[in-house]
TrEMBL record:
It comes from the Eukaryota. Coiled coil: none annotated. PANTHER family: 4.1 G PROTEIN, PROTEIN 4.1 HOMOLOG. PROSITE patterns: FERM_3. This is Radixin-like. InterPro entries: Band_41_domain, FERM/acyl-CoA-bd_prot_sf, FERM_2, FERM_central, FERM_domain, FERM_N, Ubiquitin-like_domsf. Gene3D superfamilies: 1.20.80.10, Phosphatidylinositol 3-kinase Catalytic Subunit, Chain A, domain 1. It holds the Pfam family FERM_M. One of its GO terms (biological process) is actomyosin structure organization. Residues 22-322 form the FERM domain. The gene is LOC116296826.
Amino acid sequence: MMKYRVSTSRSSNISSLLHGRFTIKVVLLDNTEVSFKFEERKKILGSELFEKVCKNTKIEEPWRKYFGLQYVNKNDGKRDWLKKNQVVNQCPSSVPGQFQFAVKVFPDTPSDEDQVVQKLLVFQVKEYLLLGNLRTTIQEQALLDSYFAQGTLGNFNQKKHFNGYLEKFLGSFFCNSFSEMSKNLYEQKVQTLHKSHQGMAHCEAFKAFLSLSASIFGYGTFVYKRAVDMNGKEFILTVSFKGIQIFLPNIYGEPEELVQEFPWDTVVSFVSDSSKFLFSVCSAHKSLQTHSFRFKGQYGYLQANRVFTDAVYHRDLILALKSIQEREPRSKSLKSENSARLERLLPGRGIDKMILMPTKKTEV
């Protein structure tokens, strides 16, 4: 499970400051830690730190859009995203100089992504399962854990994988109800499934893990509770690649009944004002509707700002990707039309194999 190493960070950072250097530690998705040293007086921006982390983890530019850096806000103990233009050593962190590398936007089809990205997504989903932020049936949980074991440990080996190897490796198991199955029985079930994956490559196991994860309710969703509308009725807001969703909470305070869903291409604008989050959507009749919610509690303004931040990240990325996808078929169509036109003008010339040189302009 990913964690913040609170006990050592403060002392190490103080020691670094005494020597005129400031150390920043980042916990990665596989729970390893990397450190970066900066001059004490230098203002380090979030974009600079993020660039260093991506280079360290070998994440290429096209895939960086899915990730970000988080810190624990000292006011309410919840995670906030480090913004690109934010000064790193001035953010209100409960553990100065320590950050978490995390998934900022989950792709809707994670199994289609680059293998490096897939592996990082697997670790993030695994953490959500362990924390109970993503819930599923015990059967699906066991299958996911077996794919995780295959992708990380490889084929089951009776000489190496003794009883208890999964418990030590996977950490504390999370199930919806332990009354349905004991931990020992659960581990045996995962082990049996792990054996059945004999011969499956690491990348295939991670791909299978993500394909199943994407089908689980709540995958890729950021949840914001204790939001009330103008009539004082309580709702739960969620932000994901699908858009903004409004749920009624169940007796446990978890999302249950979907009330409304607004895809990103219908969301015109959103605003965070104190503890309020407002967003406007364009209906099918082209009329503009504004929805307003207020977050309860002393730190409601922080929650409102978090919804706003996540909404900005998701909408900008999803609409940009959608625009690229819409242009690609059009580009291919135009290429085919141009090839057909040239073939009619110059029959038998093998247009598909010709290299068409651009016309050189002559200046007069």
